[in-house]
Design brief:
CATH architecture of the largest domain: 3-Layer(aba) Sandwich
InterPro entries: CheY-like_superfamily (IPR011006), OmpR/PhoB-type_DNA-bd (IPR001867), Sig_transdc_resp-reg_C-effctor (IPR016032), Sig_transdc_resp-reg_receiver (IPR001789), WalR-like (IPR039420), WH-like_DNA-bd_sf (IPR036388)
Strand content: 15-25%
CATH topology of the largest domain: Rossmann fold
CATH class of the largest domain: Alpha Beta
Keywords: DNA-binding, Phosphoprotein
Largest sheet: 5 strands, parallel
Organism: Corynebacterium provencense
GO molecular function: phosphorelay response regulator activity; transcription cis-regulatory region binding
Number of strands: 12
Distance between the termini: 27 Å
CATH superfamily of the largest domain: Response regulator
Shape: elongated
Radius of gyration: 19 Å
Strand order of the largest sheet: 2-1-3-4-5
Structural class: alpha/beta
Helix content: 25-40%
Number of helices: 8
Protein name: Transcriptional regulatory protein PrrA
């Protein structure tokens, strides 16, 4: 299974990234210090690194350059708040495979990771990404038509409601945070303070039944 090292000292951002990757089937670990990130990046244990440049202990640009000098060939995607041209040029010339600026959208980060890994990873158990009609616990959703059947009874959903339900159905029983749902459904930047998810969850509950989506207080939502 693909292993990703997230070199990030902001705990909130690191947790957001890790949760997203784990839901996609990747093994993911965090290094919040530059020296630790360098040592683990050189260990050969990981298939990919997501690297913040502003790390304590050892700057991310130095980590990148030293790993390449030591012939570490795993893909490295720089994810940083540094947006200056000089920083981009130095990182790319130093061996970065890609460069993303913060704030970011998880969907875009995931797409770039899959591109560099050649599509490695998996969808949730029992759910093929190519599945057209999703079925879970008396729910039957066709994302193409935005129609859902609840115990055989058809209901119409808006595009956002359909996308939200699809995200929950593809991860049954798993808690999805508001930040993850924002990225998956709305492709919004990291913003766990937004209440748009709560608004749409309430609307979706009215259509499919209030007991089908559980609120995990302080964490997020999951499909029962």
């Amino acid at each position: 299974m693909t292993r990703i090292l997230v070199a990030e000292d902001d705990a909130g951002i690191a947790d957001f990234i890790v949760r997203g990757f784990r839901l996609e089937g990747y093994l993911c670990e965090v290094a919040d210090d530059g020296s630790e990130a360098f040592i683990r990046g050189h260990s050969g244990e990981f298939d990919m690194m997501i690297l913040d440049l502003g790390l304590p202990g050892m700057d991310g640009t130095d980590i990148l350059e030293q790993l390449r000098i030591l012939r570490v060939t795993m893909p490295i995607i720089v994810l940083t708040a540094r947006t200056g041209l000089d920083d981009r040029v130095r990182a790319l010339e130093g061996g970065a495979d890609d460069y993303m600026a913060k704030p970011f959208q998880f969907a875009e980060l995931l797409a770039r990771v899959k591109l560099r890994l050649g599509g490695a990873g998996r969808t949730s158990e029992g759910m093929d990404a190519a599945t057209v009609v999703l079925r879970r616990g008396g729910l039957e959703l066709d994302p193409r038509t935005q129609k859902v059947r609840v115990g055989g009874d058809p209901r119409n959903l808006s595009r956002r409601e359909s996308d939200l339900l699809e995200a929950l159905m593809r991860h049954p029983g798993q808690i999805l945070s508001r930040a993850q749902l924002l990225s998956m459904v709305w492709e919004m930047d990291f913003d766990p303070g937004s209440n748009v998810v709560d608004v749409y969850v309430r609307a979706l509950r009215r259509k499919i039944g209030g007991d089908r989506i559980e609120t995990v207080r302080g964490v997020g939502y999951r499909l029962v």
